[in-house]
TrEMBL record:
Reactions listed under catalytic activity: ATP + protein L-histidine = ADP + protein N-phospho-L-histidine
Signal peptide: none
GO molecular function: phosphorelay sensor kinase activity
EC number: 2.7.13.3
Key word Cell inner membrane present: no
Organismal lineage: Bacteria, Pseudomonadati, Bacteroidota, Cytophagia, Cytophagales
Protein name: histidine kinase
Keyword Transmembrane helix: yes
Keyword line: Coiled coil, Membrane, Transmembrane, Transmembrane helix
Domain of life according to the entry: Bacteria
Species for this entry: Fulvivirga lutea
InterPro entries referenced in this protein's UniProt entry, alphabetically: HisK_dim/P_dom (IPR003661), HisK_dim/P_sf (IPR036097)
Length: 324
């Protein structure tokens, strides 16, 4: 199965558009199917009928296999338009070659042979709509022409090789209508194939448009997500930086509060000592009768305690200024 998949995907990587890839894939499938079909026909005829007469020979088998497998090789080599054109042309040419060569060797040509050729021609006439897009109109027209010419000039081709139905001594009652029926069937079949082909291509174009819109929306969404990510990242960095600053300030405030508490505790003792001295000396002034010498001595002590108190107050103010 892997071998089959490898064969039918030959040349797909060389195609640019989705329609071309599908056309190459279908042409490879048709080539493979026709190659297997002709091989099976020869094997069945040889095994069950033990007959390879009337132009059915190994050479024709080899020619058929080469003819039907050549599009796969051309697709693989990058000549996909030529490969797809050959899958439209070669089955019809091989059909004419096989039937004409066999009919020349048959002792009796039966009417059903002409009907069989028409059936095969109608079948092969749908191949161009499978392997070409209507946007490649020249390629599509080139693929249609072999089948169209074969159907329109069916009797003239046989007349050119001396195999005209009218010269074979076959019943003529209904034959003139057969050509008209074949042409009508051809146009009905090809009109349906073309309509189906248009529907598929239109759906492809609509799907491609949706894919392009989805891709554009995906790009826009990706851009917005990237922008949002950058904004979130920037905001996160700002929050982290601000949080770090707040934590730092908080630690500084805590340290300052601790220091202030320590200084307040220490300085309260420093303030209390000179203040207590001043209060004691003032009380001594009020409650005792002192000599002039004692009064001067107490005033001197009050002055010294006031200076100590002023010094402590200045130290406290300096410390408070440092903690701001």
């Amino acid at each position: 199965m892997n071998i089959v998949q490898h064969i039918v995907k030959s040349g797909i990587t060389n195609a640019k558009s989705y329609q071309d890839k599908r056309g190459i894939l279908i042409s490879n499938y048709i080539s493979l199917i026709l190659s297997v079909a002709i091989l099976m026909i020869y094997l069945v005829r040889f095994i069950y009928f033990s007959d390879l007469s009337y132009g059915v020979s190994g050479i024709n088998l080899v020619i058929g296999l080469l003819v039907f497998s050549s599009p796969i090789l051309l697709n693989r080599l990058g000549f996909d338009y030529l490969g797809r054109f050959l899958i439209c042309l070669m089955p019809i040419l091989y059909l004419w070659f096989m039937f004409i060569s066999q009919m020349h060797n048959l002792p009796i040509v039966y009417p059903t042979i002409y009907s069989a050729i028409r059936i095969f021609l109608l079948t092969f006439s749908t191949i161009p709509f499978l392997v070409f897009s209507y946007r490649s109109k020249y390629s599509l027209i080139a693929g249609i022409l072999p089948g169209l010419i074969s159907v329109l000039f069916f009797e003239q081709i046989f007349s050119a090789v001396n195999l005209s139905y009218y010269t074979q001594g076959l019943p003529l009652e209904d034959y003139p209508l057969m050509q008209m029926r074949t042409i009508i069937a051809y146009f009905i079949l090809n009109a349906g194939s073309y309509t189906f082909h248009l529907i598929i291509v239109k759906n492809d174009m609509y799907t491609q448009k949706l894919l392009e819109e989805l891709e554009e929306q995906s790009k826009q969404l990706e851009l917005k997500n990237k922008t949002l990510y950058e904004l979130n990242n920037t905001l996160d960095q700002k929050v982290k930086r601000r949080t770090a600053e707040i934590e730092k300030k908080n630690i500084e405030l805590i340290n300052k509060n601790v220091k202030l508490s320590e200084y307040a505790f220490i300085n309260s003792h420093k303030l209390r000592s000179p203040l207590a001295s001043i209060l004691g000396l003032v009380n001594l002034f009020e409650t005792h009768i002192l000599s002039e010498h004692e009064r001067l001595k107490i005033i001197e002590k009050i002055k010294k305690s006031s200076e100590d108190l002023d010094r402590v107050v200045k130290e406290i103010n300096a410390i408070l200024d440092e903690t701001k």
